[in-house]
Specification:
Shape: globular
CATH architecture: 3-Layer(aba) Sandwich
CATH class: Alpha Beta
Number of helices: 6
Order of helices and strands: EEEHEEEHEEHHHHE
Strand order of the largest sheet: 4-5-3-6-7-8-9
CATH topology: Pyruvate-ferredoxin Oxidoreductase, domain 3
Number of domains: 1
Helix content: 25-40%
Strand content: 25-35%
Length: 207
């Protein structure tokens, strides 16, 4: 489904609203340890895209031991029909551990974006042709006294950099993806999203 944007043009001395269709596709990889909320972050992104009348794809991949093992998920959010969920290169990589940085830094498209949490990172991103952002979500989740807000802080940072989904639709996505017994945590998650937007910092602009 195409997303409509509006602009005004002068026509015979009067204003006339013209619909202009804007195409948008964002291809994302989220990668880290199992237990960091990697897959659930991707699922919330996908549901949020649906709430915004976008086409979405969510394709998870994880090791034999989910918690503590490596996990990644590919998410596509698009204004057009998605031909395939399988990707080799990404517009944005959200990286949550060193193993994932080592594996996926090279898969970001030139001019793309890398967002990472610095906790446990010993070799920082090295590419010069991408824009790099850091969000210290582990530290901020500890300040909020809730480790479960970690992935929402990261997601908030992403939405500051790539505002492709409105916050109200992310909240709808949370309600859709979370079991009802966890709906009482939605206000805390909303606070974490906003905090992520506030604390993300640009490390390097693409050359």
């Amino acid at each position: 489904m195409l997303k409509a944007a509006s602009r005004k043009v002068v026509y015979r001395g009067a204003f006339k609203t013209v619909k202009k269709f804007v195409k948008m596709t964002e291809e994302i990889i989220i990668a880290g340890f199992g237990g960091q909320g990697v897959l659930s972050m991707g699922k919330i992104m996908a549901y949020s895209g649906v709430m915004q009348d976008m086409e979405v794809s969510w394709m998870p991949s994880y090791g034999p031991e989910m918690r503590g093992g490596t996990a990644n998920v590919t998410v596509i959010i698009s204004s057009e029909r998605i031909s395939s969920p399988i990707l080799r290169h990404f517009d944005t990589a959200i990286i949550l551990n060193q193993q994932s940085l080592d594996k996926f830094e090279s898969t970001i498209k030139p001019g793309g974006v890398l967002i990472y949490d610095g906790n446990g990172i010993t070799r920082h991103p090295e590419r010069k042709d991408i824009t790099i952002y850091r969000v210290n979500a582990t530290e901020e989740a500890a300040r909020m006294s809730s480790s479960k807000t970690f992935n929402m802080i990261i997601l908030g940072g992403f939405l500051k950099v790539k505002p492709i989904i409105k916050l109200e639709n992310v909240i709808k996505g949370l309600r859709k993806s979370l079991p009802e017994r966890y709906h009482s945590l939605i206000p805390l998650n909303e606070k974490a999203l906003i905090r992520g937007e506030e604390i993300i910092t640009e490390v390097q602009k693409a050359n």
